[in-house]
Amino acid sequence: MSKNNWVLGLAVLILIVGLSAWGFSKKGTNPGPKPSSTVSSLEETIPTADNLIKDDEPYFDNNATVMEFYQPSCGWCIKQSEVLNELAKDGYRVKPMNTATNADYWQKYNVSGTPTFLAANGDRVEGYQAAEQLKVFLDAHK
User: Fold this and answer.
1) What kind of fold does domain 48-140 have according to CATH?
2) Which H or E run contains 72?
3) Against a cut of 0.90, is the pTM above it?
4) In angstroms, what CA-CA distances link 12 with 4, 18, 20?
């Protein structure tokens, strides 16, 4: 009786290993759901050499009272730069704080993500901000 149990157990083990191997070999062959024809505005902003945030953006000013923590290749930061470029036409400026070139900023200023805006009094807003929201924050911290 015990010999039959051993053979049965071995057969089940071989079956499991075989099915697992077959499943792993099939993994990745199913393309899954088709992507929708509409792409979010963030996905349209794929970082390239042309749209990376540069140190000489018109909205950057080292004397500004509000700091912007950003990374040049961060999709949300690139999207935020579009808003900042529009606000720069009305004279709005932020102090550039590139976390990619100064990793100390993360801990020193308690930054958990980019973009983040930090005023001299410690007020902050984190994440992408629409133009009107950012304008209100910048106006409150002139």
Assistant:
1) Glutaredoxin (3.40.30)
2) none
3) no
4) 12, 10, 12
